[in-house]
Specification:
It comes from Hucho hucho. By secondary structure, the chain is mainly alpha-helical. The chain has helices spanning 19-27, 45-62, 72-85, 97-114, 135-150, 179-191, 193-196.
Length: 197
């Protein structure tokens, strides 16, 4: 996290941690006391945040060198800014999850395009400022996010299940199995699907 302007050198400075208050903001995120309490209507805020974290992790795995500066804290900062702008609980109902996540993704893209992501608690500190987040990496991030959005967010898709494997021995004149025995074994296998697994 960049040092605040006018501070001493990094070796002579202390890092300020906001982790406790960030956790509290995420935990008590609603503008009404009833949001996400045990008997209340649940919202989709935390799911959106988790999806954004998964997308960031996926991008880092796919592009480890290009997005070395990318971290989940940047996603958390975008999320906190979005919570402060979209405070009404009605904007975060569970059936709005896709739209809410796309809004959050759009916010991250917008901050990337502008090159400005103010720290939530120290707004004079830009988390997208160089050298902490190089301009080349920022352009790459914005393009990668746009590509994910255009392609339907493939990094968030579950992997396709592996097809069932079935061994079919080759039918050749020299093979010991005759054609009729091969057909009989195929018929038996197809009538017992557990054998195919």
């Amino acid at each position: 996290f960049p040092f605040i302007h006018g501070c001493l050198s990094p070796a002579e400075s202390w890092r300020i941690s906001f982790s406790h208050i960030e956790k509290e903001l995420i935990k008590t995120h609603g503008n009404k006391r009833t949001c996400c309490e045990s008997s209340a209507t649940k919202c989709c805020r935390k799911q959106c945040f988790k999806l954004l974290k998964c997308l960031i992790e996926g991008l880092k795995k796919r592009y480890p060198q290009e997005l070395d500066a990318l971290c989940s804290y940047l996603g958390k900062t975008v999320f906190l800014h979005t919570l402060s702008i979209r405070a009404q609980d009605s904007l975060w109902t569970r059936h709005h999850l896709p739209a809410c996540f796309m809004h959050l993704l759009g916010a991250l893209e917008g901050h990337g395009r502008s090159g400005l992501l103010p720290h939530f608690f120290v707004p004079t500190s830009n988390l997208f400022a160089a050298p902490t987040f190089p301009r080349k990496a920022l352009v790459f991030l914005t393009e990668a996010l746009e590509e994910q959005r255009r392609q339907g967010l493939p990094l968030l898709m579950p992997p396709a299940p592996a097809p069932h494997w079935q061994y079919t021995p080759p039918v050749t004149p020299s093979h010991p199995l005759s054609y009729s025995r091969l057909m009989l074994s195929s018929l038996l296998l197809s009538s017992h699907p557990k054998l195919l697994r």
